[in-house]
Design goal:
alpha/beta, globular
């Protein structure tokens, strides 16, 4: 058997050597004249805002029409399921966020697998979250909040956009690493959750800066710490939560994925074009408005990130007993 494999290799080398080199450049992949960028969330949020500008820029670069289609529901899984079943020709892509992996970790009955049924294409940007309390909260630091949580397990309540949301998962991994327990109060979206935080009906929310920006500017809420490993360039005065809970770090990310099986040349081309768009001043200004840092990850690096996130959140869901039946 080894001899046959060796012989096959020698023959292959001979064929390659005998083949004239026509060109070193591969043919450019052909993209559909109309492409759909699915956003698995309602209009108006950061995913939708990013998708619409990206679609406009990609249309110009690919010389076709890229349209945005919102398919919200079930924490993003309705839109994701649609994309997983889409043709493998580049006609359907998806712009999603970290919720893509957190939602999958708590829903055992999903019809798709986040690793097997999708092709990671490109990451757009990332941002820390903010550990936030109401204006009148007695807590002036993350340490003081955690000290109270240790004294009275379950006393500290936190709000989220729902079970499996990044808000819940970031809060639960914090509780696990700090060896405390919080009381979860799920809401149907961030708006009612933030209203209750400002009214101090819940003690804390780990939220994106986009979700809290209006209330933060008006002074209705305060931020105790950021969830990134280091200080945010947009809020350098805020300490990282890792200063209080060593090793804690949670980043929001936004990225583009397609159905599994997209041709590799097409994925590489899309990654290059999206990275070029992300580098444009208009995109960087848009990300800055969301306190997000632009990304320049390769296809492989983005795929590794999705894989790590999926494993992390699956472990958190198991250890913290988080599930949507």
């Amino acid at each position: 058997m080894k001899r046959e494999v060796l012989l096959a290799g020698v023959l292959a080398c001979g064929l390659l050597a005998a083949t004239p080199v026509a060109t070193h450049a591969q043919a450019e992949p052909a993209f559909p004249k109309v492409m759909t960028m699915v956003v698995p969330f309602p209009p108006g949020g950061s995913n939708d805002v990013f998708a619409r500008v990206l679609a406009e820029k990609l249309s110009a670069r690919l010389h076709n029409s890229v349209i945005v289609e919102n398919r919200p529901g079930a924490g993003g899984s309705i839109g994701a399921d649609y994309v997983a079943r889409a043709p493998k020709d580049g006609s359907v892509l998806m712009l999603s966020s970290s919720t893509f992996t957190t939602n999958a970790a708590v829903q055992p009955k999903l019809q798709y697998d986040v690793l097997k049924d999708f092709s990671p294409v490109a990451m757009l940007a990332s941002s820390p979250m903010a550990i936030t309390v109401g204006k009148g909260s007695k807590y002036d630091s993350l340490r003081s909040l955690l000290d109270d949580a240790r004294k009275e397990p379950g006393k500290i309540s936190y709000g989220s956009a729902g079970i499996g949301s990044i808000n819940q998962m970031a809060s639960e991994i914090l509780a696990g690493m700090a060896k405390v327990s919080f009381m979860h109060v799920p809401y149907k979206g961030m708006s009612p959750a933030m209203n209750d935080l400002a009214a101090e009906r819940v003690d804390m929310i780990v939220a994106s800066f986009a979700s809290i920006s209006a209330m933060l500017k008006s002074g209705r809420v305060r931020v105790l710490a950021v969830t990134s490993a280091e200080r945010s360039p947009f809020y350098p005065d805020l300490p990282p939560a890792g200063d209080t809970v060593p090793g804690y770090a949670v980043q929001l990310w936004w990225g583009v994925l397609g159905p599994a099986g997209l041709p590799e040349p097409m994925v590489r081309k899309l990654n290059a074009e999206i990275r070029a768009v992300v580098a444009e001043p208009r995109m960087r200004e848009m990300f800055a408005a969301e306190s997000a840092v632009p990304s320049d990850l390769s296809v492989a690096q983005f795929a590794d990130l999705v894989k790590r996130d999926a494993a992390t959140w699956k472990q958190v869901a198991r250890e913290r007993n988080i599930s949507v039946e």
